[in-house]
């Protein structure tokens, strides 16, 4: 098991020795970084292919279908068939489009998704770069994903594309805030922004210390990657396909790629931050990591198979009136408890009890507010429906 | 050596972005060039071994300021039009301001002596930064956050439907 656990580290050591024979020190560093980057890109693309298959299988099962089952065993070769199809499709550029912006859009969309993989710890000591600013880096990289979407939406010269881009930007900017805030509670306990250090700090999984933060993170992340029920930017029944309406062939494939890598990336981040990352008994760390990540990926697919799309006003209200205040309250509670019992000094058990109690109080408060305000909410909802009915009646 | 090459590359990228902002005929494309310039500045922070600043630069300037600019452009003017006039009636005023600023920066660049510390950059900048913000500089930090809160509330009051 020790051997399997260190498998990839050993491989990297072998490569290092191999090139170290004939290259100076800085050359070895350059080669090692290039190899790590290439491996991450390959992981990204393979993961994307696997996820497209997995999504169709899982959603198929939820809808009582079989999903892809013609190409290869269990339809496993389906992604390759899709890839070939994408390659040979005609590449269309709308006549009125701004050529540069239109063509650069899909190229700018992918890097933020792949860059996020760089700091994710796939196992003990196994990450592209263990940055000291870990979570800040992830937040910064994720925040740039809007740019490519804007470029695609504006460059296409299509009002549906523009509407989709505006929706996407509003959604990503809004849900970024609860997502970042929810993880601050975790960082408070771990005492570091570095992903590896956060994993090492999890003697008890942080999902048990910060259940509220985990739920906020999960919801905000699904919104960040624009997956159902938050897929308004590409709502096909309203605005065709949103910002990638005009794209075909491999350019469309790039948006596809970015979406699936992001799905994997946020699941991996969730597994790292809340589910103990690569920690676990018996099996090698990277197997634990992948198992936890795919558990979260499955949850994301499950949400898609279960929930209907939400409305724009619900989207914004939910972010600003529910998630942000809740994330702030959670941060306040976590900070108070961390000030009372110093998590770095008190034994794990009391820390665990303290944070869990704080979170349970928070949940109780939220439920109470919900019960108290339920009649009011129903009234406002009825008003919205009534107004719509009046409009439709005209 | 490698740092030098990287610096020259990043500096050229930053400058190219900045020149693009001025020369682009469409406000949207200007905003995109501005993002390129911001990313270049963040790269310079990385070269200076200030990862926290680099991350914040990306998060605040690219993720928030640039997106805000693009939003403003999209909501306030006919953003589909390619042709925005290169100069407007206030070009003289703007030109004078730009020239004064340029001369001022040039003077500062030549007059100031730029001290170079031979000490190694600190290992853990984030906790030092956090302790400074919450300890020695807690008052300015809190004042800044109250300012931001005031601005937020003000924006809501202005934007509220009456």
Question: Could you explain how this protein is built, in words?
Answer:
The complex is a heterodimer of chains A (394) and B (162). By secondary structure, chain A is mainly α. Chain A has one domain. Chain A is built from 16 helices and no strands. Chain B has helices at 2-23, 27-47, 51-76, 91-111, 125-134, 138-159. Chain B starts with a helix and ends with a helix. Chain B has 162 residues and is mainly α. Chain B folds into 2 domains: 1-84, NADH-ubiquinone/plastoquinone oxidoreductase chain 6, subunit NuoJ (Four Helix Bundle (Hemerythrin (Met), subunit A)); 123-162. Classes of the chains: A mainly alpha (394), B mainly alpha (162).
User: Count the strands of chain A?
Assistant: 0
- Kindly provide the radius of gyration of chain B, computed on alpha-carbon positions and rounded to a whole number of angstroms: 20 Å
What is the mean pLDDT of chain A? Answer: 83
The global form of chain A is globular
User: What is the class of the largest domain in chain B in the CATH system?
Assistant: Mainly Alpha
- DSSP helix fraction of chain A: over 70%
- Largest beta sheet of chain B, briefly? none
Q: Would you list the SSEs of chain A in sequence order as H and E?
A: HHHHHHHHHHHHHHHH
**Count of distinct strands of chain B:** 0
CATH superfamily of the largest domain in chain B: NADH-ubiquinone/plastoquinone oxidoreductase chain 6, subunit NuoJ
Q: Residue ranges of chain A: pLDDT <50 for 5 or more in a row?
A: none
Question: Strand share of the residues of chain B?
Answer: under 5%
The chain pair forming the largest interface, with residue counts per chain, is:
A-B, 27 and 27 residues
Shape of chain B: globular
Rg of Cα set of chain A: 23 Å
Percent in strands of chain A:
under 5%
Largest sheet of chain A: none
């Amino acid at each position: 098991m020790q051997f399997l656990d260190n498998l990839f580290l050993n491989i990297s050591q072998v490569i290092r020795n191999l090139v170290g024979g004939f290259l100076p020190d800085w050359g070895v560093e350059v080669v090692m970084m290039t190899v790590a980057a290439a491996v991450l890109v390959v992981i990204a693309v393979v993961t994307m292919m696997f996820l497209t298959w997995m999504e169709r299988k899982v959603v198929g099962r939820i809808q009582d279908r079989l999903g892809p089952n013609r190409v290869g065993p269990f339809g496993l070769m389906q992604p390759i068939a899709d890839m070939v199809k994408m390659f040979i499709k005609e590449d269309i550029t709308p006549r009125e489009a701004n050529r540069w912006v239109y063509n650069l859009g899909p190229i700018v969309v992918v890097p933020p998704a792949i860059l996020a993989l760089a700091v994710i710890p796939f196992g003990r000591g196994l990450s592209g770069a263990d940055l000291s600013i870990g979570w800040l880096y992830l937040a910064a990289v994720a925040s740039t994903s809007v740019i490519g979407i804007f470029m695609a939406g504006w460059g296409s010269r299509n009002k549906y594309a523009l509407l989709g881009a505006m929706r996407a930007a509003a959604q990503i900017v809004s849900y970024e805030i609860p997502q970042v805030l929810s993880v601050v509670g975790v960082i408070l306990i771990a005492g570091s922004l570095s992903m590896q250090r956060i994993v090492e700090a999890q003697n008890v999984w942080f999902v048990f210390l910060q259940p509220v933060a985990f739920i906020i993170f999960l919801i905000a992340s699904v919104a960040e990657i624009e997956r159902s029920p938050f897929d308004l930017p590409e709502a096909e029944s309203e605005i065709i396909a949103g910002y990638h309406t005009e794209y075909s062939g491999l350019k469309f494939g790039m948006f596809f790629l970015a979406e699936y890598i992001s799905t994997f990336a946020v699941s991996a981040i969730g597994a790292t931050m809340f589910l103990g990352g690569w920690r676990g008994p018996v099996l090698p760390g990277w197997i634990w990591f992948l198992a936890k990540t795919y558990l979260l990926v499955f949850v994301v697919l499950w949400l898609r198979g279960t929930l209907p799309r939400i409305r724009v006003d619900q989207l914004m209200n939910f972010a600003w009136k529910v998630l942000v205040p809740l994330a702030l309250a959670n941060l306040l509670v976590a900070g108070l408890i961390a000030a009372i019992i110093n998590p770095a000094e008190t034994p794990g058990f009391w820390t665990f009890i303290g944070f869990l109690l704080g979170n349970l109080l928070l949940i109780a408060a939220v439920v109470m507010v919900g019960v108290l305000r339920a009649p009011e909410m129903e009234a406002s909802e009825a008003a919205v429906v009534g107004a719509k009915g009046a409009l439709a009646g005209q | 050596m490698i740092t030098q090459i990287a610096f020259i590359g990043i500096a050229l990228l930053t400058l190219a972005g900045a020149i693009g902002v001025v020369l682009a005929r469409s406000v949207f494309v200007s905003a995109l060039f501005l993002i390129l310039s911001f990313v270049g500045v963040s790269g310079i922070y990385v070269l200076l071994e200030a990862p926290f600043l680099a991350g914040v630069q990306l998060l605040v300037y690219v993720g928030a300021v640039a997106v805000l600019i693009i939003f403003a452009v999209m909501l306030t003017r006919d953003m589909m039009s390619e042709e925005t006039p290169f100069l407007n009636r206030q070009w003289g005023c703007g030109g004078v301001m730009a020239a004064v600023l340029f001369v001022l920066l040039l003077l500062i660049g030549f007059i100031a002596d730029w001290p170079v510390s031979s000490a190694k950059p600190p290992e853990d900048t984030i906790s030092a930064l956090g302790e400074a913000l919450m300890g020695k500089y807690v008052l300015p930090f809190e004042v800044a956050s109250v300012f931001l809160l005031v601005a937020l509330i003000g924006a809501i009051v202005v934007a509220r439907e009456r």
